Task: inverse folding
């Protein structure tokens, strides 16, 4: 890898400022590097609340004010852009539809693809900006031949390249991640914010799904989709419980199953399958979750698409580890085989391929091939 060369002129940078510490420090670093930075807060909720719920939620009036105060301290112009309609259509409604279809989506990844590096980036370029800056922990590396690559952050503990695996060449060419090459703890980032006089230095991080402020995903889905009672069955098809909506479950789930009948072996049971057609949830032993292979659709490449089969590592969830795979594009879909069985793989999740620290691309899991397990 080579260092990103300093531009011959300061870039016009639009810094997405969520109201949190990471985006504030990223904007401050971009300005300190000599770029012409303008801060923007994205209003993504049609009905923002005055206060967050602990460390949950986003797009509140409080967040907007925190972002504005940070921009004032940094000394950059600041605006609020209303992208609530796009966010509702491209992220929230997609999230609900995916769960209704029995899949498990990743709304953060979809937001990066559709909002921050599509709607926001398109508007920024139309206004003459050169790049969009965010507080993500990842790196864009400029090669000597002028091509760009997306790489993991220097600090693997904070790496967020998984949720950026949907970015294509054009988007990478206009992306800036000032925190990605810094090997520091979150406490050190907060200390830097405090040194810079940013009041968000001690603000708690947001987590879980940003548009579900109370963290109750099942309740959120129930309000949108209504209750739909159905059966929970074991692998033989015998009824072992009931539920109020198959959309409230995900593959690999163990807690909250409300199964009255214990398993014959006395061991915990997990969600193995979700069938929205007959509103049935199938449960079984952990060993039945083992997956040897999968098919993923809608691949997006951070550079040139691979030609022929290749050996990579893969990440299957935002905070998951890496696993060895072989992968090949066949008739437009990504066919993946695991070197060792993995568990908890759900349709709707994203699989992101890596070559070392370089992000090769991502795709949406459509189906899996279960390993043959002796569960007796």
Result:
């Amino acid at each position: 890898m080579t260092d990103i060369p300093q531009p011959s002129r300061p870039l016009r940078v639009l810094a997405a400022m969520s109201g949190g510490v990471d985006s504030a420090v990223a904007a401050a670093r971009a300005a300190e590097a000599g770029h012409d930075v303008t801060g923007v807060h994205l209003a993504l909720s049609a009905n923002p609340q005055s206060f967050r719920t602990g460390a949950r939620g986003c797009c509140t009036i409080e967040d907007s004010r925190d972002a504005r105060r940070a921009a004032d301290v940094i000394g950059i112009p600041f605006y609020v852009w209303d992208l609530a309609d796009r966010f509702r259509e491209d992220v929230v409604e997609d999230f609900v539809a995916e769960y209704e279809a029995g899949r498990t989506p990743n709304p953060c990844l979809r937001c990066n693809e559709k909002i921050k590096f599509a709607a926001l980036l398109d508007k920024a370029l139309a206004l003459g900006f050169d790049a969009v800056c965010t507080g993500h922990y990842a790196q864009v590396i400029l090669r000597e031949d002028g091509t760009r690559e997306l790489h993991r952050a220097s600090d693997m503990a904070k790496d967020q390249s998984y949720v950026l695996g949907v970015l294509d060449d054009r988007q990478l060419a206009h992306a800036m991640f000032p925190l990605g090459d810094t090997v520091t703890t979150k406490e050190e980032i907060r200390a830097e914010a405090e040194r810079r006089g940013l009041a968000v230095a001690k603000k708690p991080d947001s987590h879980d799904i940003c548009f579900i402020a109370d963290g109750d995903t099942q309740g959120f889905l129930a309000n949108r989709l209504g209750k739909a009672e159905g059966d929970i069955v074991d692998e033989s098809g015998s009824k072992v419980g009931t539920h109020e909506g198959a959309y409230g479950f995900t593959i690999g789930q163990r807690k909250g199953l409300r199964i009255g009948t214990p398993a014959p072996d006395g061991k915990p049971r997990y969600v193995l399958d979700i069938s929205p057609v007959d509103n049935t949830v199938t449960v079984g032993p952990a060993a039945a979750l083992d997956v040897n292979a999968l098919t993923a659709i809608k691949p997006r490449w951070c550079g040139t698409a691979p030609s022929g089969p290749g050996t990579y590592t893969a990440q299957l969830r935002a905070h998951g580890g890496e696993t060895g795979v072989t992968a090949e594009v066949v008739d437009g879909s990504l066919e993946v085989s695991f070197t060792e069985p993995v568990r908890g793989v759900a349709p709707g999740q994203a699989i992101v391929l890596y070559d070392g620290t370089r992000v090769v691309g991502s795709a949406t899991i459509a189906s899996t091939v279960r390993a043959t397990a002796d569960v007796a």
Notes: DSSP finds seven helices and 17 strands in the chain.
